[in-house]
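A student in our group prepared the protein record below, which I am reviewing. What it holds is a sequence and that sequence's fold in token form. My question to you is simply how this chain folds and whether the tokens agree. Do not assume that whoever made the record got everything right. I have pasted the whole thing underneath without changing anything:
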Amino acid sequence: MKLDHTYILPTLMALVVHLVVAMVFMTEWQSQSHRTPLVQVKHQVEATLIDLDAVLAQQNKLQNEKQEKKKAADKKKAADKKKAADKKKAADKKAADKKAADKKAADKKAADKKAADKKAADKKAADKKAADKKAADKKAADKKAADKKAADKKAADKKAADKKAADKQAADKKAADKQAADKKAADKKAADKQAADEKAAEQLAEVQQALDDLLDDEMAADLSEENRISEGQAVSAITNYIMNEIVDHWVRPADARTDMVVYLEIKLVPTGEIVNVEIFSRNASASDAFVASAKTAALKVAKFDRLSELDIGIFDANFRNITLKFKPEDLRL
């Protein structure tokens, strides 16, 4: 029988075991044969014939079964190991996939956050840029408006200053012209008054002289007619004097015209002081302003000083109650 090389070692070991057993059995048997037993003992030996091929076949079968079991165990172990490895690989892959997915999600989240942060930063920068531009535009507009306002104010101030200077110059000229006109009028009025006063004084002196002459008894009869003439001249002179005084104090109203006439009734005392002034009458053309101005002028005189120089008889007869026709000659048409 041709043996498989894989069974040589087990077969040799089996043979060695059998040889060792046989040698032990033989040695024991020989030592028993040389001993002198005290008692004859008969031994019955039973021997069994062993079929070495059968033993080897049995051993081969056992070895094969053992090999099969080992192979099965190894296969199962390999399968379990592979299964465990596959499971671990799957778990590792799952963990790796999860880790990769988590990383991908984290990376996406980080990228999204970075993009959002960038977008927010860009928007913030754009908003700041827009706000800065708006602020700069407003500042420029405010400066432009302020500059325009300042320029307008400067121009307005200059215009106002120029107008004020022009108005002042015109007012100064007007005041100077008025002052010159007033001085000229005052000078004329003073000259006219002085002339009137001088004329009245002369007339009054003449009247007084005539009155003094009337005191002479020897000339009384011859001068009676002359006396009447002198008294009439005195009355006329004093009347003109009174009228001139009133005109000098008169402020002409704007509507005064040459056809306006008012009659003033004036009550006097011998000292020449005015007791009362009333409107006696007025024509249809005389305005209220004209009438009032005539009465006011008379009241402003207050006292006619030259009346105190008159003889009391002439005063009582002609000037204690006097009615004057007020109609200035220099009025406009």
